[in-house]
Amino acid sequence: MIKPLGTYADFKVFACNSNPALAEEIAAKIGKPLGKAEVSTFSDGEISVNVYESVRGLDVYIIQSTCNPVNNNLMELLILIDAMKRASAGRINAVIPYYGYARQDRKVKARDPITAKLVANLISAAGADRVVTMDLHASQIQGYFDIPVDHLLGMPILVKYFKNKQIKDLVIVSPDHGSVTRARNMAFPLGVPIAIVDKRRQKANESEIMHVIGDIDGKSCILVDDVIDTAGTITNAANKLKDLGAADIYACATHGVLSGKALQNIEDSAIKELVLLNTIPLDGAKMSQKIKFLSVAQLFADAVNNIYNNYSVSKMFDSQ
Question: Sorting pLDDT into bands at 50, 70 and 90, what band is 288?
Fold first, then answer.
């Protein structure tokens, strides 16, 4: 049952282990220290949670991206939520900058699971009263929850960055048909046209044939997506744009999963600069020199403050 609003004397911010640097930065922007809690692992692999301060009747925010190792990070979040519920927290808000399993949001073939819905059920069942997340792979995932979801947008951060670069003869490029709306949302505030990479596979095991819809000859291009995983789609698209006469090629996304050979694919590609938001941490030792991270800490800090004070979250984006 959702608790009534406006009944919390104070709020506290806690974090699990997936992205401690971002959690610390969000807490600093809010002006509060992270709550005293320890999330560790027993020798047999079970997760242990200890909360060292009272949360009774308070508005609690738990920061945890469910990135790699996905299942461990998800269990950490669920167990800490359960601990807060049993400690009589007034309201429990799961702050999930990156929502893992979001790409398993529908049945593609017979007997497929819809894991994004299963994870939503688990978070609700654990005791969360609200979810705060960013750039879900599909916006309708918000409807998988029976609790309020505040869906933050990373696009304004990316738009501001590229607007400040003042790139000439710019075109925003969608790397596939699924990102066309995202490309339009970036192109509109920048006042530039879009292009679309059309990918088709005629037969199984045949090479992919790629075409580009739109004028990119001699133009600087920004490829835009929500998630970059193995970086195959984005780098293939960048290389094709280069072959067709594009000038400088940039790429950006909210979530940098960067699994498998992603970093090598990026290094070997025609991409000049890849801009990601820091919803997922990446080991600096493995970082490509082409990658730049922008912080989402201020946006999440503002969202937490607005939620606690019962202010609108959507109005944060009205002036963007």
Answer: confident
CA distance 139 to 142: 6
Give kind and range of the element (H or E) at residue 25. Answer: helix 20-30
Residue 220 forms beta bridges with which residues? 170
Neighbour-count burial for 9-40, b at 16+ CB within 10 Å, e otherwise: eebbbbbbbbbeebbbbbbebbebebbebebe
Which amino acid is it at 13? V
Of 32, 199, 261, 292, the catalytic one is 199
Question: 177, 198 in Cβ contact below 8 A?
Answer: yes
Domains of the chain: 11-153+297-317 (3.40.50.2020), 155-294 (3.40.50.2020)
pLDDT category at 235 given cuts 50, 70, 90 is very high
CA count, 13 A, side-chain hemisphere, 282? 23
Q: Is the pLDDT of residue 285 over 50?
A: no
Active site residue 199: yes
CA neighbor of 237 nearest in space, from 268, 261, 271, 275:
271
Q: Does the CA dihedral 134-7-39-26 come out positive or negative?
A: positive
* Token pair recorded at residue 144: 């998988």
| Cα 116–chain centre separation | 14
Please, is 302 exposed, middle or buried when counting C-beta atoms within 10 Å of its C-beta (0-12, 13-18, 19+)? middle
Look up residue 207 and give its DSSP letter.
P
pLDDT (tens digit, 9 = 90+) per residue, 1-21?
A: 455 555 788 999 999 999 999
Instruction: Of 70-84, 125-139, 207-221, 230-244, give the lowest mean pLDDT range.
Output: 207-221
Residue 54: is it exposed, middle or buried by C-beta count within 10 angstroms (0-12/13-18/19+)? exposed
Longest dimension (CA), the chain: 62
pTM over the 0.90 mark: yes
